[in-house]
Amino acid sequence: MTRILAFIAAFVLAAPVAAQDIDVDLELALMVDVSRSMSPAELEIQRRGYAAALRSDIVLSAIRSGPLQRIAVSYIEWAGTQAVIVPWQALETRTDLDGFADALSNAFNPTLRRTSISEALIYGAESMGHNAFHGFRRVIDISGDGPNNQGRPVTEARDRVLEAGIVINGLPLMTRDGFDNRWHLEDLDVYYRACVTGGWGSFVIPVLTWEDFSEAVLRKLVMEISGLPAGMDVVPVQYRAPESYDCLVGEKRWQERQRYWQEP
Fold first, then answer.
1. Burial (Cβ within 10 Å: 0-12, 13-18, ≥19) of residue 134
2. pLDDT tens for each residue of 95-141
3. What domains does the chain contain, in order, with CATH numbers?
């Protein structure tokens, strides 16, 4: 009996211990549009804007305002597909923030085709399910300069993400710059409110000029990290889209374009 007990004890001690997720105040997926409608200069503005915000004392103070004083962040660029630029990592010190910002200066493929907000949302949610963190709050922050035109309907993806308890915030880019303005929506901010974002405390911050981008990024990061309620020019949104808004506007424009090129 003694030998049996000793064998069992040795087996238990030798068995691998399952890794425990690291608790953080927030899991934040930064989903950034790099579709072909964005110019190389605009893509650089986005990278620099996020890097500058992450280096700011305000963001560090926001992190330190949380109970655990630690968040987890990933930076993902998307178009019709997705590319992880900075994988999930914990941010709690000035060194952590500077290292994340430095990673945004790496070389990258400046433009990808199409615009699939829906698949970007699903990708962001799934990445949260496979990272090494457990956030008390989980947020997907998605920016873009046009409506969804590829993949599943955006409302289907949104609802699936919200049902998982993940909040979606939006940063619609309404500058009308870039290579291709055929996908531009005059009311892109309304589209984001009605069709893309949702969850408790979610918000939309429109960017009307590229000069406003850095300030908008800084403000939204502080709000997301601190868990502050929407205010100022931020528009809080609800779970369901208004019945009057056509959330398939992007898909319909793409179909019209395809029919035009196929006509004899």
1. middle
2. 999 999 999 987 665 555 667 899 999 999 999 999 999 999 999 99
3. 21-240+248-262 (3.40.50.410)
